[in-house]
Amino acid sequence: MAARTGASNLVSTSSKAEGLIDPVSLMRLRSMELRAKVIVEGFCKGIHRSPYHGFSVEFTEYRQYTSGDDPRYIDWRVYARSDRFYIKKFEDETNLRCHLLIDHSRSMGYGSAGYSKSQYGGTLAATLAYFLFTQGDAVGLATFDDRIRQYLPPRNRPGYLRRLMLALEACPEGTATDLGPPLQQIAGMLTKRGLIVLISDLLTSIDRLERDLGYLCAGGHDVVVFNVLDMAELNFDFSSPALFQDIETGRNMYVDPSEAQTPYKRMLDKHLAKTKSVCQNLGIDYHLFATDRPFDLALFDFLQHRMRRRKRVRYIPTGRDSRRTV
Q1: Residue range 33-56: mean pLDDT, rounded
Q2: Where are the domains of the chain?
Q3: Which class would CATH give 93-311?
Q4: Maximal C-alpha separation, the chain
């Protein structure tokens, strides 16, 4: 009971810039599943308030009745609540296969706010998994560094969400980030088109990035990238000279921030601009997230992407009562 009371206190009705969920407070909840539940329920409660006025999260379950639809599929319980006719979407309209690809290289273990990029990225993945499960979609997971460490195929059945949550709680143990081999392997494993969500700091060779991400796009998958970076990595606002250690290589370097900040930020901005350009060229939906950004904004961006994607999908008759997408 105490946990539920504490969780409910994390939800607020602040502006869109601030979001609905405070990441620092949220990370005090040890359970990944509870974090995801708090975010999704808080998001759904606040979805019709000011920041998201007019936005609906029911598009993945129902569509409005139109002339020619079989009235046998009208959901009368929804009609009783809304006074509008909705039909449940057919299985081939609604079933989504989502693969969550989570970077577990050692650089993801860095964090300056009491939690790491890995914990932030894992919570983001858990939030998407929890939301998609509630919509009846199948969700899978792959964690990787320079190779795949664990893989759970997309499923939607009792107990499977808990398996995903436990897998997401694992700490990163890999060394260098090498997207190529694991993404190529994953692309070869996926025989059906689906949604792929990649969560990584993308601190890898920019020269190979287009090739690496291209493995996922080659199969015709819908790809979304969340580029997660710590606030200190983005701002480099350290106040005094110090000995910095490369987490992945163990190399030590003495750095004076007053001298290094300007060239560092210039190089980082160039890297991020190139990363965004590569994603745009490949048709990938790209989002840069600092680890202090509220999770509900990530969910909002994700749902906006899904809605834009659905607007590009048209339905054609199949000769039966059901419809399929093309």
Answers
A1: 66
A2: 2-52, 93-311
A3: alpha beta
A4: 72
